[in-house]
Amino acid sequence: MADIFDIIDIIFHNAVELAGLDGFVLYKKKPAIGEKKNHVTVETTGVMTKDYVNKAPAVNINIFVKLQPNGMIKKGVIEESVRKIKHAINVLIPPPGMYFKYNIEWTEPLGEVKEGFYGMNIRVSVITELD
User: What is the pTM (predicted TM-score) of this model?
Assistant: First the structure.
């Protein structure tokens, strides 16, 4: 059975790192304070555990793209990075012998939640064990 740390590692290493995002810094959990480059964070909201299922209700993949000097968003960079990550998730191969069922729940804009950046969120639900 995978725990919260395994789930983040699997999504991070087997999808986000393999997406091939040029010019992005990748982080598990939170980015470095004062990060100025385009970056991606992978975090979960926690794990609900029942006797028959271990499910992380949400793995959030947040993509932050630096705004242009005039404040406009870099639409092409955002679209390309989201598509690459979603493709990598859709072909994700879990570790051998591990039950790992996942689903992309949504892709939504975060807007300018971080000063100087435009954000997008990809939410993935994960089930790691069935009885």
Answer: 0.88
